[in-house]
Amino acid sequence: MLKIAYHPIYKHPLPQGHRFPMEKYELLPKQLLYEGTCKESNFFKPGFPKEDYILSVHEKNYYERLKSLKLDRKEIRKSGFPLSQELVDREQIIADGTIKACQYALEHGIAMNIAGGTHHAYTNRAEAFCLLNDQAIGARYLQNQKLAKQILIVDLDVHQGNGTAEIFQNDPSVFTFSMHGKGNYPFKKESSDLDIELKDGTDDKTYLKKLRSVLPELIEEVKPDFIFYLSGVDILETDKLGRLSCTISGCKARDKFVLNTCYEQGIAVECSMGGGYSKDIRLIIEAHANTYRLAQEIYF
């Protein structure tokens, strides 16, 4: 059975006019239930993870100041969110959702988190709507619990996974692969183990050709026993922050290729949703929903 992490706190309210579309976290599970892709039994409610799991990735000083709401103004501004207890709770619960999704993925081949993909969070700071790096925490959890040795992170959000790159920059047991917009945020990028930079306006054909030429060889080289997939839908041409020119069908073809590759290789995969900022919320929901439809189709 496909297991999906969802908690009502994912839709944490933000001040009116804030550009981050929090409503997608509420609308996406409703859409999956309405159309029959999922049932209530597919969803599980995460809680708070053990602090040791978070501290395996994030510096204690940063985490303690985050928990006690003592980040300074510059740090808060860089996070992109107004700091609150509910927001900190949300970030911890998202991380727990990814940890538990890792466990389900080992059982069923795949598991999902409605939120997550917080790849801009560094070991010691928040950045760009990301306070704690959920997939990095999940990777360390698997390794520390001796559930996986070699991990591959496939980050296909339109923005580079700079925080993830920094966290694992000296760790050969976690291979970081980011394919992202060259001219997009972050403008000062970190070095992933493999970075593929795409020009503004990159279309479906160019995008998919590049991905298909790289991922199978990368898996053969890295030989991962677990994969994290960050399936951001901000590669769409309609995305306000994206700058690429992919279509809904191209985004779906991307997800199908990644999930089929994991399935055929017999490698467990955890999927976190990542970004999506199209003006029309319906396009965001449709693009994200395709990932879940494909997971059901391919694995179950």
TrEMBL record:
Domain Histone deacetylase, first and last residues per copy: 18-280
Signal peptide range in chain numbering: none
Keywords from the named record: Hydrolase
Protein name listed in UniProt: Histone deacetylase
DNA damage recorded as keyword: no
Lineage, broadest ranks: Bacteria, Pseudomonadati, Bacteroidota, Flavobacteriia, Flavobacteriales
InterPro entries associated with the record: HDAC_classIV (IPR044150), HDACs (IPR000286), His_deacetylse_dom (IPR023801), His_deacetylse_dom_sf (IPR037138), Ureohydrolase_dom_sf (IPR023696)
Family: Belongs to the histone deacetylase family.
UniProt key word Hydrolase: yes
Pfam short name (any one): Hist_deacetyl
